[in-house]
């Protein structure tokens, strides 16, 4: 929840805040492993805008978060291994300082069931069948509902493509047995596979305070259907169509509260149009390195967000 900004320094002659006490933490994971993290690309722009930035592993449970003016969730790409612990840390941070994105948005975005809320508000998503656990009846219902035997199975909580499977009728029964075992007690979602992901790629549009910043196109590696960079996907800066932009900002318009940052993942299929794949509000890679102006736009957005308590008091 929002607290008075006791540590904010006086206004300078230029209208910005004094740089003496403005500190920002980027939350990350303890071991980077093979992850591609480019948040450091944004640090010079943030420093120029008056911020001292520290990168802090989120599992440092004894950290006094009050030493920071704001904590921004960034590359916490193992939180799904301990969701309750992650939430406890976020709640502690929110009790001691300002958290971005706001805690209520982070809670809402933890499980991909948020897509149901967006769909109910009129956002077009990839058609989805939701299941508390997987059984043969669920797969049969998906085939009947979607009119295809080419399906994608995902966990309702997770990231980086972990646990995501493509199920095709022509494949050996061992694949289905693996899926049944993996999801026999795990909430999942079933979707029709969209060939557009292989043919045209998946789009990611980035917004800072609901303003478009930049976009990329992700093309899966040969033999792969997942579009994560760590899985060999080709990433390139790209200019999205008007239809993609409209679909992305329709999703942002119906958020329960304003977001400092958002990544909107979409696919565009012939005869179908733009469909939302995911709306990432917790720890999306923001691909700062793909657009030279993105770090500066993020820094300006953070300054504006910090100066607008209404944007961040809704934890």
Describe the protein:
With 315 residues, the chain is an alpha+beta fold. It has helices at 43-48, 83-96, 103-109, 114-120, 136-146, 173-182, 196-199, 242-253, 294-306; strands at 23-28, 52-57, 70-75, 98-100, 129-131, 150-155, 165-168, 188-192, 202-208, 211-219, 234-237, 261-269, 273-280. Residues 1-19 have low confidence and may be disordered.
Summarize the structure.
27% of the residues lie in helices and 24% in strands.
- Spans of at least 5 consecutive residues whose pLDDT stays below 50 are 1-19
Shape assignment: globular
How far from one another are the termini? 5 Å
Give the amount of beta strand, in percent: 15-25%
How many β strands by DSSP?
13
Question: What class would the helix/strand composition place it in?
Answer: alpha+beta
Mean pLDDT: 88
**Number of DSSP helices?**
9
User: What Rg, in angstroms, do the CA atoms define?
Assistant: 20 Å
Strand and helix order: EHEEHEHHEHEEHEHEEEHEEH
Helical content (DSSP H or I, runs of 4+):
25-40%
Largest sheet: 5 strands, antiparallel
Task: Kindly report the spatial arrangement of strands forming the biggest sheet.
Answer: 11-10-9-12-13
